[in-house]
């Protein structure tokens, strides 16, 4: 028998390494194997290719053993990794480190133990409310009794109630979907408030394709037909549906068709922590076929899901964040990317710096499946692809039961100040409407883009402001902790009593964040029940769910929050939404700022007035005549898209050019700028005006490290791949200069 060799991808920077396949080893591509590397290091790697070409080295080490009996990667997935590595300028090993963390740093059980067989639980615990408290009055009484004495139990009970659906019921929810800890659940069970029982992850349910699907309105039905029709000729379809039009119901019908045919479906969501309601809903329909997957799950849970899916014969539904694109779904037929415009689909801080939406489109092409991109306000890239006919396109403009879109009012902050119609951060236009809504017993959402109390603290006498010693950024004042905090590196310091420069005692927090809004509101509306939703209050999924549950059940009148309040939920009783300061959205110099501002304001506005009555939205700004606001008021996405696309075409920005950002980092500022200038000059010899920079980003020092950037712009028609290859080559040679050895370079292709 001829000697056999295997190219193995290891979690290292080089593309692949060749090992010998021992005679009797029965090996398949995609399997995990253990190899020895160097004198005494061992790695788990993935078999990429098996061949008979002996590499040109003296001794070829043999593969030690196989560590997964089934392939962990399908052939299309290996092609996807290769595409990601080539396109986003990294190696398959770097993709592996991110996609298969369990093979890189095994914790707890070893992979072998997991594979040995006991990993798939036949039953699992389910939790339900005791029938005795499934009744609004009894439930409220119970909750009131717990809130002070047992806040954890209170939060847990809320979580269980919320996971069970819109209405109170004794529906059983899987224990693993809950954040509440074991002692808390045990205590609740002891009090007879909940029941915990083992339920089978039954196999019949897997085979049963009679799902209880939601009924579609005629408009939804037509849209579904349109999508299915477009899939005949287009691998990718864009679904543009206004907030409240019911895109989710259409997703559910498409998923049901896919599963019924024995295919797998993958639904990507921008932030899975905010989607427990959606997961619960899908689990009620699709039962144990549903797997939730994201990188914040414990590694063991992710490993279990990964291995279970690697063995599955199809009919799986995965709901996940961007990392779920790497799961081994053998019969992937449908990928849904919900809120496809969300920047969270792009991984920016570490390799692979991939855009999961674009990877999903590629994946569908590789598997012969379909991708559906859904959004109320699509990214201009996807919209342009739909206009050019590259993507299919379906539109859903009708809201449920003819609910009208909320009326948007722009309130001029400068005029309000001049007329004495502004109190702290609120124009009278807003406060009058708030008072009226509160009188009517309706709810209010207030959006402010910054968290904390005040984004900076300054001394009015000398102009000193508190800055982070490690980063080039002001410190944010968090009043509850009484401390200043850096939102970039986490550095904290007490608020000084006196100005360190002039000794002045009148240090003032300036600007305002959500914490300050909450405090001012308490003075304006002392009788209102106010809550806050941002990264400081929603520190865990259960904390987040508790805030949402309080608001949903009407125990909060006003909810203040960052863009977290823009996502997800239908709040039935919200009649008024306030955007407290649109200026920082409108006046941002980034080329995507207008698109983002439109998306965010439309999304926030969409939270007002659903089903029965039209709501109102008040946008406070000192730029009331900004043309983008007109488009927001009119809900005129097409006008926004036309204007922005024309600008991007004129100035050569995506989708009319491809951008690659090169970031250089170093502790020696002088040396860094020298290196960047020399590199830019060298690149200009090759690329001419396609090179922009070097420029310092808005925050140009983080954790004592300086940052500078260069941008490569490649127009359509030119080969972006070739340009990127040249770029990498020049950067590598340039940084090989011993003077620049402390400087590192990283790439971000299609930066967001
Ligand atoms: Zn001072
Ligand atoms: Zn800092």
Short summary:
By secondary structure, the chain is an alpha/beta fold. It has 24 helices and 33 strands.
Described by the principal axes of the CA atoms, the overall outline is: globular
Question: What is the assembly state of the chains in this entry?
Answer: single chain
Mean pLDDT: 86
Bound molecules: zinc ion
Strand content: 15-25%
Strand order across the largest sheet:
11-12-10-13-14-9-15
Strands, total number: 33
Structural class of the helices, strands and pairings? alpha/beta
Provide a descriptive summary of the structure in words.
This protein has 752 residues and is of the alpha/beta class. It is built from 24 helices and 33 strands. The strands form eight sheets. Strands 11-12-10-13-14-9-15 form a seven-stranded parallel beta sheet, with helices on both faces. β11, α12 (299-311) and β12 (317-320) form a beta-alpha-beta unit. The longest helix is centred in the last third of the chain and has 19 residues, at 669-687. It is globular and about 85 Å long. The structure holds zinc ion (2 copies). Residues 468, 470-471, 486, 488-489, 491 line the site of one zinc ion.
List keywords for this structure.
single chain, 752 residues, alpha/beta, 7-stranded parallel β-sheet, 6-stranded parallel β-sheet, 33 strands, 35% helix, globular, binds zinc ion
Question: Topology of this structure?
Answer:
Elements: E1 4-9, E2 17-21, E3 32-37, E4 41-51, E5 65-66, H1 75-87, H2 92-99, H3 101-104, H4 111-118, E6 123-129, H5 136-149, H6 151-163, E7 173-174, H7 182-190, E8 194-200, H8 203-207, H9 218-231, E9 236-241, H10 247-260, E10 264-268, H11 276-286, E11 290-293, H12 299-311, E12 317-320, E13 332-338, H13 356-367, E14 370-375, H14 380-387, E15 392-396, E16 407-412, H15 413-418, E17 422-423, E18 426-427, H16 428-439, E19 443-447, E20 456-458, E21 476-478, E22 483-485, E23 492-494, E24 508-510, H17 514-524, E25 530-533, H18 541-552, E26 558-561, E27 574-579, H19 583-586, H20 593-605, E28 616-621, H21 627-633, H22 637-651, E29 658-666, H23 669-687, E30 691-695, E31 701-702, E32 705-714, H24 720-735, E33 744-749
Parallel strand pairs: 9-14, 9-15, 10-12, 10-13, 11-12, 13-14, 16-28, 19-26, 19-27, 25-26, 27-28
Antiparallel strand pairs: 1-2, 1-4, 3-4, 3-5, 6-7, 6-8, 17-18, 20-24, 21-22, 22-23, 29-32, 29-33, 30-32, 31-32
The structure holds zinc ion (ZN) (2 copies).
One zinc ion binds at residues 459, 461-462, 464, 499, 501-502, 504.
